[in-house]
Amino acid sequence: MSATRKGYDGVVAAVPVTVPYERFSKESAHWWIARALRQLCAQAGVKPSEIDGFCVSSFTLFPDTAVGLTQHLGLTARWLDHIPFGGASGITALRRAARAVQAGDTRMVACLAGDTNHVDSFRRTLSSFSRFAQDASYPYGSGGPNACFALLTDHYMRHYGAKRQDFGAICVAQRQNALRNPHAIMKKPLSLEQYMAARAVSDPIALFDCVMPVAGAEAFLVMREEDARAAGLPHAHIRSTIERHNAFADDPIQMRGGWAMDVDELYGMAGLMADGIDVLQTYDDYPVIVMMQFEDLGFCEKGEAPQFVRAHDLTIDGDFPHNTSGGQLSAGQAGAAGGYIGLVEAIRQVTGIAGPTQVKDAATAMVSGFGMINYDRGLCSGAAILSGGTA
Amino acid sequence: MTDPLSPPPRKNPQKRTRVPTRPSHVRSRAALGFAAAAAEGRFMLQTCAECGAVQYPPRDACGSCLSVELNWTDVSPAGRLIADTTVRISTNVYFRERTPWRVGTVRLDIGPSVMCHVHGDVAVDDPVRLSIKLDKSGQGVMFALPQKATPNMEDDPHMREMTCDPKHRRVLITDARNENAPALAQALAEAGASLIFVGEAESWHPYPHRATLEKIANVEIMPLDVTDTASVTELAAEIGGKTDILINNARFVRPGGIMDRGDVIFSRDEMEVNFFGMMRLAQAFGPAMRGRGADGDNSATAWVNILSVYAWSNMPEFGAFSASNAAALSLSQCLRAELLQGGVRVMNVFTGPTEDEWHQPLPPPKVLPAALARAVVGGLKDGLEDVFVGDVAKDLIDRWRAGPKILEREMLDTRGQG
User: Fold this and answer.
1) B88 CA to chain A: closest CA distance, Å?
2) pLDDT tens for residues B298-318?
3) Which of A60, A292, A308, B188 would disulfide-bridge B193, Cβ 3.0–4.6 Å?
4) What InterPro entries does the record tag this protein with (chain A) (predicted)?
5) What ipTM was assigned to the predicted interfaces of this complex?
6) Does B21 contact chain A (CB < 8 Å)?
7) Is the pTM of this model over 0.90?
8) Per CATH, which fold does A130-209+236-384 belong to?
C-alpha cells in the first residue's frame, strides 16, 4: 500500500495556536473559533481574506457548520471542510488539507477546532450524540462515555492483567507535564495515591481517569513549504498519515483501534520505526485508550502496555516523552479541540517552539487521534508522523 | 442470590413523595421495535431477510449486505457477560436518584454485543439470558438475567424498576361480582400483594362467591360502582393514595349486535361499564397513581384492563360488546400515554370467550378464571403491556397481525371461533 501512496512533499503544518481553556464559558463556539482564527492570522502574518481554505471541527456550533462560519467570520474560501470526527478530527483535517494544498486546490488551509462549554452543554451533547448512542447506550445508566470506557477498561484489565496503578502512572506523568504548561486547566500536582483514592465514577474508572470538559480552541495552518519559508514560519513536514473508521467491527468489545490495521503503512511511508519517534502524543480521553495506542502503534506488543508503562518514564524529561502538554487528562478537553491538542503540541515540539514543555532534541513526533463512541466503541482513528523543518 | 425485599414501612405523609422521573425515552423509529417486543415479553432483534445477519443496535439497512429488509424476529437470548461497570455518576436525573447502577456488555451467542442492564445475580463471564424489558420511560431496554432462576431474583432493585411485581403492593380489583374475582384475588395474594381491595357494587344484593372472596388473605371488600361517578370518587378519596395496582375488571356483556337488539339499552350499559367505567376510574385514581410512580418499593406501578380480544376485530354475535371493548382499547392507549409520565404502566389483558353464563352458547376453548388470574399476575411480574390469554385470543391476534381485513371476513361466519 505504502508504495502507491504519494508523500506530502512541498506542504507543511505551521502556526500552532491554542486559545487558553476555561472550565465554563458563556460564549459560543463561534467566539472561541474566531479567537483561534484571529491568533492564527496574527502569528502567520496573513489577513483573513488571504486564507482561501478553511476546515472546522466543533460539537457546539449548532445550527451552523463551516458554511455559516465563512459568513460569520468574513472568509471567502475556495476550499471548505467540516469534520465531525471528534478526537480524530485533527489528523483528518491535516490529511485532507495537505492534499488540497499539494494539489493546488487551495493555497493555505486554516484548520480549527473549538467548543464552548456551557453549564449544561455536556449533558446535552451526550443525550443526542449519535443515533446508536441514543438508542443503545445512553438509556443504560446514562453514564456517558465514562460508562462506555469503563466497560472497555474492565475488559482490558481482565484480559491483559492491567492494574489501576498502570493507568494511574499515565495520568500522574501527564499531570507532571501539565504543570509545565501554563494553559493547562489542572494546576496542582497529582500523586499515585491521590489517583488511587479518587472518587469512583464508573468502576473501574475514577475521577482522574476522566477528562475535564472545558471551553477552548486549537488551530494550525497547512500551507506550501515555500510560503512558510518565505514568511519565516517554523514548520513541520508530514512524513506519513493513516486514517481508519469502524475497524475490527467483529471484535466483541474494543481491544484495539484502527491503528492496528494501518500501522505498517504509517511507518513504511515515513521510512522509520517506533524507535525513530522522539515524542508521542496519543489521544487520551481515557488511559485505557492510551494503552491501546502504545500497542497498536507498535511501541509494544498487544497486551503489554501495562508492562511498558511500568518500564518507562512518560514525562517530558523521561525516556518516553508522551502527551507533553498534559494532554486532555490534565490540560482539559475542549470538545473537538481534544482532537487537535496533540497535533498542535507535536508541531510545537518538532519545530522547537514548545517552550516549557519542549522535549530536548525532539525532531520527529507521532500524533494519534481517536474519536466518536458511536455506540460501544470509538470508530474513528488516525495517526501522523511529523518532523521538524530540517528533516 | 438477591436479598428479599422487606415490606416497605408505613408512609410518613410529612416526607416528600419522590417525583417520578424517567430514563431517556428518545429513540429512533427502528428502535421502537424493542418496546413492541417488550410489551409481550418476547426477545426479538432485527434479522436481515436476505443474508440472515442479526442486527444490533437497530438500524435501517443491514450492516452486512445493505438490504433494507430487516424483520423483527424471535431469536435466542443466550449470551455471556463479558464486561461490567457500576455507574456512580450519571447525567440523567432518573439514574442519579438510583445509583449505583450496574450495566454490562453481553456477547450474544448469535453475534452482536449488547450494552445492557445487569441483574445482581450475574457475574462477569457468566452465561446469561438477555430479556427486553420496558423501563420507566416506556421504552424497551436490554436486561441480562441469570441463565437459571435464582432465589428472590424478582426483588433485584434494577429488575423491580422494570416490572410491576405485586409483592408488597396494594391492589384494587374492581367488580367483586365478576366470577373471576376470587381467582384474581387469590393469585395476587399468593404473589405477595399486601392489601387487596375488591370493589363491590350493589352490596345489598347477594352473589354466590362472596364468602370465598372474603376468606382470601388481605382482601378488603369496598363499595364501588364504576357506573356511578360519586361512588368512584368516594373510594378514590379513601384508598386512591395507596392504590399501587388497579385491575379494571368490570365488564358488562350481553350477546347481540345491532338489528337483533332493537334498542340501545344494553349497548349503553356496555359503554357505561366497559368504556365510561375505565374513564371514571382513571379520572379518580389516575392522578394519584401518576404522582406516586416513584414512591419507594410500593410505588404505584400498573393499571390493568381486562378486555375482550374482540376489541381488535368485531365478533358479530357479540357485536355491540366487541364495539365497547374496541372503544375501551382505544381509551387505554390514551391512558397509557397519560400514566407514562409517572412511569405507571398500562397492561391490557385480552381474553377470548370466558367460562361464564353469557358465553355459554359458544364452543370451547374458553378461558377459566384461574387462567386469567395467572396471566394477570404473570404479566405484572414480567412487566408486560399486552397479554393474550387463551388459545382463542392468541389465535385471533396472530390472524389480526397477518391481515385485519382478512380476519374481518373470517369473523363473518365463524360463530366465535375466529
Assistant:
1) 5
2) 999 999 999 999 999 999 999
3) B188
4) Thiolase (IPR002155), Thiolase-like (IPR016039), Thiolase_C_2 (IPR055140)
5) 0.94
6) no
7) yes
8) Peroxisomal Thiolase; Chain A, domain 1 (3.40.47)
